[in-house]
Design goal:
Elements lengths: L2 H4 L15 E6 L7 E8 L2 E9 L5 E6 L6 E4 L6 E3 L6 E4 L10 E4 L1 H32 L1 H4 L2 H23 L6 H13 L1 H7 L4 H10 L5 H4 L4 H13 L5 H19 L3 H17 L3 H13 L7 H12 L14 E3 L19 E7 L4 H19 L2 E7 L4 H8 L5 E4 L7 H5 L7 E6 L4 E3 L4 H13 L7
Parallel strand pairs: 1-7, 10-11, 11-12
Antiparallel strand pairs: 1-4, 2-3, 2-5, 5-6, 7-8, 9-12, 10-13, 13-14
Helix pairs in contact: 2-4, 7-9, 9-11, 10-12, 11-12, 12-13
């Protein structure tokens, strides 16, 4: 990992030192007369700490007095330079923040340790990966497998590299933030290498992620929260096992995470919300459903209303549940029913299957999805599948221009998120799709029109016997 990503900030707890402001100063000639600012991390967000103007010779000085966390200096080029703020004065010298390799830490012990590790650790990792690659050659290639001396030397060198890295971390003062930060950053940065070149370490790395204490206040202000969650679940997803085992492993990790966050209401809400959206984005719906049900069932914290409603859709509208019936109130368009009576409610539809789709003209993804749905509609209708589009538009002209020519049933009561049908289906985003059978049992929650069309091809056109 590049040096600039490893030079992170450190702010020890306010109770550890006096409230007197500490100073970050230095010289950055390439940024003469520019404004730089210091920003810190809180959970998944950042916040401003201080701002100053660099003089014509490149000199600057910034005062800070903040709680424990991570901070970075940033200039107009938006290239951050991460620093440790440990209650000690820090002095740096270099060209510009965008050239971290040019910057030297002249004062500030924790920054100097981090600077040293940021330089040495990537080189050790590169060498270690190279030795592991050679080890496989000497073990698997018959041309080299007979050479015992090189194999022994490789093992010894691997051991030496790991020991040297561990000794550096071990000598750091236990009460220093850097002694927590560096091993955590090391774990996160190792994920891509482990997944590609050290697959034998995957399970141990996943286990190490489960041991991280997400309730630790240091974590909340470290700038590592987002990277840790993404890396943890990405590694599980890319661990080379079946999807069934992926979900099984993710559920173990979710259990571990929820146990750690029990009683920490702010963290529970922020981390659950982030992880839920992460799993949804990666189409890992079985894991997001498990997280939703787990979060809703815990009693130690109160979920905020928006998050609770978002998660509730997995409890109330999961596969196998019976979807609510609803009357088509407001305006209804149904060109395919020209000359025939338009159904007045969902349960009036006689087709074997119904796809209920929620969307709106103001939703960019809905435009492409609904227009694609309209192209498939005749094919689906022939196979016994009706479509009901529930619009969240707020005025008739928008709804009519968007939906009047779709062919399938389109309905809008112009109440947007306050629409009774939208609320009864726990819709929190658009587009949202539910595939129902004749009894309104939820068969599938398609993530796209293409998935829905694939279902029609497989279960209806090909007549797959498992369709029920």
């Amino acid at each position: 990992m590049e040096k600039k990503f490893l030079l992170f900030a450190l702010l020890l707890p306010l109770s550890f030192y006096s409230a007197v402001a500490q100073t970050i100063s230095g010289q950055l000639p390439a940024l003469a007369n520019e404004t730089i600012r210091l920003e810190g991390f809180e959970g998944f967000d950042t916040y401003p700490i201080a701002t100053t103007q660099i003089d014509e010779k490149g000199n600057f000085s910034l005062n800070y007095s903040v709680k424990e966390g991570v901070a970075y200096l940033i200039s107009a080029d938006q290239k951050p330079y991460f620093l440790i703020l440990s209650g000690e004065d820090v002095v740096i010298q270099g060209d510009a923040l965008s050239s971290p390799e040019s910057i030297k830490v002249l004062k500030g012990q924790e920054n100097q340790w981090l600077d040293q590790y940021a330089s040495e650790h990537p080189r050790r990792e590169q060498a270690l990966s190279a030795w592991i690659y050679l080890e496989k050659i000497y073990q698997l290639d018959s041309l080299f497998a007979v050479q015992e001396i090189p194999q022994k030397a490789i093992v010894e060198e691997k051991t030496r590299i790991r020991r040297e890295d561990s000794l550096f971390l071990a000598q750091l003062p236990k009460d220093a933030y850097v002694s927590w930060f560096l091993p955590t950053r090391k774990l996160i940065s190792s994920v891509s290498v482990v997944a590609q070149y050290r697959t034998g370490e995957i399970q141990a790395t996943i286990a190490a992620f489960r041991q991280l204490d997400y309730s630790n206040p240091r974590f909340y202000r470290s700038g590592l929260l987002k990277d840790a969650l993404e890396s943890h679940f990405w590694l599980i997803e890319n661990s080379g096992v079946s999807l069934e085992l992926v979900y099984k492993s993710m559920k173990v990790s979710i259990d571990s995470l929820m146990n750690q966050l029990s009683g920490h209401e702010l963290l529970m809400n922020e981390i659950t919300n982030f992880l839920f959206n992460l799993l949804e984005t990666h189409s890992l719906f079985e894991a997001s459903e498990y997280l939703a049900l787990k979060a809703l069932s815990q009693n130690s914290c109160t979920l905020n209303d928006d998050l609770a409603r978002q998660l509730e859709t997995y409890r109330a509208m999961k596969k196998g549940k019976i979807a609510p019936d609803f009357v088509f109130v407001g305006d209804v368009f149904a060109p395919a029913y020209e000359g025939d009576k338009i159904p007045e409610k969902l349960s009036d539809i006689s087709d074997s299957y119904v796809l209920v789709a929620f969307g709106a003209s103001w939703c960019p993804a809905c435009k492409s999805e609904l227009n694609e749905m309209a192209q498939y509609y005749r094919k689906w209708k022939t196979e016994g599948l009706e479509v009901v589009f529930v619009s969240l538009d707020e005025n008739r002209s928008d709804f009519e221009s968007f939906a009047s020519d779709f062919g399938f049933i389109s309905v809008c009561d112009y109440q947007k998120w306050n629409s009774p049908v939208v609320q009864s289906y726990y819709v929190f985003g658009t587009p949202t799709l539910f595939l129902l059978d004749q009894n309104r049992k939820i068969l599938l929650r398609p993530i796209s029109v293409k998935q829905m069309d694939a279902w029609v091809d497989w279960f209806l056109i090909q007549g797959n016997p498992m369709k029920d």
